[in-house]
Amino acid sequence: MTVQIRDETAIVVDSIVKEFVLRHSRSLKEVLVWLLRGRKKELSNRFKALDNVSLHVAQGETVALLGLNGSGKSTLLKLISGVLQPDGGSVQTRGRVAGLIEVGAGFHHDLSGRDNVFLNGAILGMTEVEIKEKFDSIVEFAEIHEFIDTEVKFYSSGMYLRLAFSIAVHTDPEIFLIDEILAVGDEPFQRKCIAKIKELAARGKTLFVVSHDLDLVATVCERGVLLEHGEITMDGPVAEAVAELRRRSAGDDEAS
Ligand SMILES: Nc1ncnc2c1ncn2[C@@H]1O[C@H](COP(=O)(O)OP(=O)(O)OP(=O)(O)O)[C@@H](O)[C@H]1O
């Protein structure tokens, strides 16, 4: 059953499953036995990175997606942004979605920063006229004036982030997805990004943030969703979700 998206809803994730294949190197003998037995079992193992995850996010909500390494956070963000397709269930979003998921993913390395503003802006749904209008503001926010005509393959990771972040916020998205990327920016730029993210939240935009910086997400987000081994184990006020994750992390340390 697919949940109908309502006016005040920004994101509906309905019972999604995402599987990946775990590859093992097999000996020739194992492959021969497998062929002779009529290929009965799968030669590679599949595992569920997300297992029956459902989530309902209202417009204007600020959600932190929390969890230990490998719990499925980035996979969920990629499914919401449409970069990945689920193996089961469905994802629906309302309004323009801008995802800062892999820095510079939409950039073409042999093109200049200027050309990439037009390319990336178009990928994110802006018209050419819109991009032209916002071009100066994009470059100004990114603070990379002198490098705007340099090919982006010569950019540092911080410069990539600056340009990617600036383009994304200028698309004026309804839903903004951010994955652990602010880490590559220097402190002044991080502060600027956080101020911008808070401004978007204050304007009623929907935010979905993945970060291991728990203090940071606690200041930006109100709601915390905790993922463990591909399942949601907690969904509530961010302070409670952060406290729970810290408790679990401390438990893991004691156990090891
Ligand atoms: N393309 C892929 N192919 C195979 N396995 C994958 C792929 N992408 C993710 N995985 C696996 O899915 C699981 C969840 O990964 P994911 O990146 O979503 O975790 P995460 O919670 O974002 O982790 P981290 O905190 O380390 O960034 C991991 O076991 C990862 O190895």
Automatic annotation (TrEMBL):
Q: Keyword Transport: yes or no?
A: yes
Which SMART domains does its entry note? AAA (SM00382)
Keyword Isomerase (UniProt): no
What are the GO cellular component annotations? membrane
All copies of the ABC transporter domain together span 28-254
Please name the CDD domains in this protein's record.
Answer: ABC_KpsT_Wzt
| Gene Ontology molecular function | ABC-type transporter activity; ATP binding; ATP hydrolysis activity
User: Which PROSITE patterns would you find in this protein's record?
Assistant: ABC_TRANSPORTER_2
Keywords, alphabetical: ATP-binding, Nucleotide-binding, Transport
Annotated Pfam families: ABC_tran (PF00005)
Q: Which family does it belong to?
A: Belongs to the ABC transporter superfamily.
Q: What is the designated name of this protein? A: ABC transporter ATP-binding protein
Taxonomic lineage: Bacteria, Bacillati, Actinomycetota, Actinomycetes, Micrococcales
